[in-house]
Specification:
Number of helices of chain A: 4
Strand content of chain B: under 5%
Helix content of chain A: over 70%
CATH class of chain A: Mainly Alpha
Order of helices and strands of chain A: HHHH
Oligomer: heterodimer
CATH topology of the largest domain in chain B: Four Helix Bundle (Hemerythrin (Met), subunit A)
Number of helices of chain B: 6
Shape of chain A: elongated
Number of strands of chain A: 0
Structural class of chain A: mainly alpha
Distance between the termini of chain A: 56 Å
CATH class of the largest domain in chain B: Mainly Alpha
Shape of chain B: globular
CATH topology of chain A: Helix Hairpins
CATH architecture of chain A: Orthogonal Bundle
CATH architecture of the largest domain in chain B: Up-down Bundle
Number of strands of chain B: 0
Amino acid sequence: MSAIQTIPLEWYLLLSTVLFTIGVLGVLFRRNAIIIFMSIELMLNAVNLLLVAFSSYLSDSKGQVFVFFIMAVAAAEVAVGLAILMMVYRNTNSSDINTLNKLKW
Amino acid sequence: MITTYLFYLLSFLAIMFALMVVFSKNPIHSVLYLVLAFFTIAGHYVLLNAQFLAAVHIIVYAGAIMVLFLFVIMLLNLNKETEPHKSVWLKASAAVASGSLLVVLVGSLKGAAGIQSAKTFDASIGLIENLGQTLFNDFLLPFEVSSILLLSAMVGAVMLGKKSIK
């Protein structure tokens, strides 16, 4: 017995939307660059969940293969992003994004 | 019936942990709540018959990415006292903006009715055999390109992490 027979697809759409919005809220709400990174991970996971839900409901394994690629891109993004964050901290002694305002209009 | 209750429980926990990631004061607590949120999402994958993907999700996210986050937080020595805060006005506008984004997205989903699920339900698409067939038949080139992406990301991270770049 799986979720597919009992739970409509719309509920997964709604859950992914809520998780994605919480990620957007985190990006807008916090000033710590690490928390902003975590919110981006949360948004990526909301998208992954939606892809898996569609792939299961449509009985098509291509959606789940896409999730693999998203995971690979997320891992690369986190590695490079955290390295950049270490550089920023080494130069400014804080992880506050408001210290990075040279390009701000 | 039990899957419905499991769906409710996992959804509630996922949303609660995601909110705790955003609103907890200490960055270490945020990371730990993020790990818990990832575990609930892995539970959703199991509910959706994507068992292999659930295992990969736990290994990659809880095992690799979260360890990176924890290492960086320990190296930067972040804690409650050094945590920067936005002004109340900016926080309120952030909440209003994301709330209206939620309203817009949910409203657009209302109009997107009529997604037909498959006539015959196949429980075995989440197994490693079918995923491997799809990955190495239809997506062979993207698979190879993603290996180059991972290599270049590794080189970039090492270059950025060096003390002085000549």
